[in-house]
Design a protein that fits this description.
With 484 residues, the protein is mostly helical. Helix content is 63%, strand content 4%. The strands form 2 sheets. Strands 1-2 form a two-stranded antiparallel sheet. It has a two-stranded antiparallel ribbon with strand order 3-4. Helix 3 (26-46) packs across helix 7 (108-144), helix 7 runs parallel beside helix 13 (330-355) and helix 11 (242-270) runs antiparallel to helix 12 (295-319).
């Protein structure tokens, strides 16, 4: 088949949802341009310009791009080396009564930039509820595991105990910031509107014979038709590429979060404490049949890294613009902006799938705690000796000597950590021998982790407040299935 003979982006073929692919399709782009031309003509007609109703009706009846329309546009673009004028020509053939007034007073960026702003807005609207769904799933996981003690790590080394639910809350907190960033980027978006060649609206002022009020009314009318509350008062030929930077930062930050979460899951899988979903017929390695590689989390890190780097592209493009505009932004934005959104969509779909089936191994977690807890418990042992009237310094010295001996057993001889057995055999610690099991209970080492999870995730907490606006979508949310 022909589709196997040419390159297709794996983002579309393997990883992203259909809704995001359709948003950035050639068809959606071309049909949005036609909508923008219709809105412009309708506004001009309403303000008294000589545009017939027949022209408007013909435009309105050809909002859908036919395959023939695309063929005409492609032929014209090859001839004229101008994509917008190629589509003006194709639209004019479909709506001949409007051929003379399509794009009246406008510059190419009237359709390209306004369409891009619509795509930024709609892309963020696709991502936000999906991300809210991931946060809800992780919140459920955190509540389920709020009391499950596990090793906490600093510097890559065992530090103190936390709980599996508390660790998930660290991920949730980062994702909540990403959700806030997407919401903020969405609310900050404004329309470019009807601004003319270098943003001065000179062409429209000429069309309306110097009537400034009608120029402003046209700008406001088209802005409202596009579904925006307001347009930028100031623009050049383009909307400021700083907008792309702001949106890129929000998306790139999400990419960084996904890398962080994926890395944590991969480490925990290495410790055999936590695993991502692994299907019945899934193969972990072509050579080593026993392996259960964390391929989803590895993909999460891979695509997250790509998204972070795509976001950097927006900064370079913004910085490279000259004066009122230069065209060196066009080709790169044509690929980088869709790929940012497709990458973000792929990451959220993947994260949803992972968080829907995380597998926890309490026995493996306990084994690792048992290996490290004796050292973590030394402070409790010292304080217990002080409570019985002993010297804190004497207790510290005894623990220090016994700890070094137990560490040598583990590191040099490959034996189990026998510190507690040594403490039980040492007459110095006889006053606390009967309470040693109590001093070693993992639940006494997790501090307020369970209570923090409850406060964070339950009714009235930060998570539920942030998700309140998405309750309708969450009610029908499902676990996403991966294509590969």
């Amino acid at each position: 088949m022909e589709k196997y003979s040419i390159y297709h982006s794996p983002l579309g073929g393997r990883y992203t949802g259909r809704d995001m692919q359709e948003l950035f399709s050639s068809r959606r782009r071309a049909e949005t341009w036609r909508l923008l031309w219709l809105w412009l003509a309708e506004g001009q007609q309403q303000l008294g310009l000589p545009i017939s109703q027949t022209a408007i009706d013909q435009m309105r009846s050809h909002m859908t791009m036919s395959d023939r329309d695309f063929e005409i546009a492609e032929t014209e673009e090859k001839r004229r080396r101008h994509d917008v004028m190629a589509h003006v020509h194709a639209f004019g053939q479909a709506a001949p009564e409007a051929a003379g007034i399509i794009h009246w007073g406008a510059t190419s960026c009237y359709v390209t930039d306004n369409a891009d702003l619509i795509f930024l807005r709609d892309g963020l609207d696709i991502l936000r509820p999906k991300l809210a769904g991931v946060i809800q799933k992780l919140s459920d996981f955190a509540q389920t595991n709020k009391n499950l003690a596990c090793l906490g790590y600093t510097h890559g080394q065992p530090a103190q105990l936390t709980t599996m639910g508390k660790r998930a809350c660290l991920w949730i907190q980062d994702l909540l910031m990403d959700l806030r960033n997407l919401e903020r980027a969405r609310s900050d978006l404004r329309f470019r509107g009807v601004k003319g060649t270098v943003g001065t609206q000179a062409s429209f002022l000429q069309i309306f014979k110097g009537d400034h009020e009608k120029v402003e009314q046209l700008d406001e009318t088209v802005t409202k038709k596009a579904g925006f509350d307001s347009a930028f008062t100031i623009s050049s030929q383009t909307y400021s590429r700083k907008i792309d930077v702001d949106v890129g930062h929000a998306l790139g930050s999400l990419g960084a979060t996904c890398q962080r979460i994926g890395g944590d899951i991969r480490h925990l899988a290495m410790f055999k404490e936590l695993e991502e979903p692994f299907e019945k017929d899934q193969i972990g390695s072509s050579a080593m049949a026993y392996k259960r590689n964390p391929m989803r989390s590895e993909r999460l890190c891979s695509l997250g890294r790509q998204l972070v780097n795509l976001a950097h592209n927006t900064e370079d493009t913004f910085a490279a613009q000259w004066l009122e505009r230069s065209l060196d932004d066009s080709a790169v934005r044509r690929s980088s902006i869709p790929e940012m959104f497709l990458s973000a969509d792929a990451l959220i779909i993947l994260l949803n799938n992972i968080c829907s089936g995380l597998v926890v191994y309490p026995a493996a977690i306990k084994r690792r705690i048992d290996e490290e807890l004796p050292f973590m418990a030394t402070e409790n042992l010292i304080m217990a000796m002080v409570d019985t009237g002993g010297s804190r310094q004497d207790a510290h010295e005894h623990i220090r000597v016994l700890s070094y001996e137990a560490a040598a057993q583990v590191k040099i001889h490959g034996m189990d950590n026998d510190l507690i057995e040594r403490v039980k055999k040492d007459p110095f610690f006889q006053p606390i021998h009967n309470i040693i099991p109590e001093l070693l209970d993992p639940k006494t080492f997790v501090g307020r982790a369970p209570q923090q999870v409850e406060k964070f995730t339950e009714a009235g907490g930060e998570v539920q407040k942030a998700l309140r606006a998405y309750q309708h979508q969450l009610a029908s949310a499902q676990t996403t299935e991966l294509r590969v």
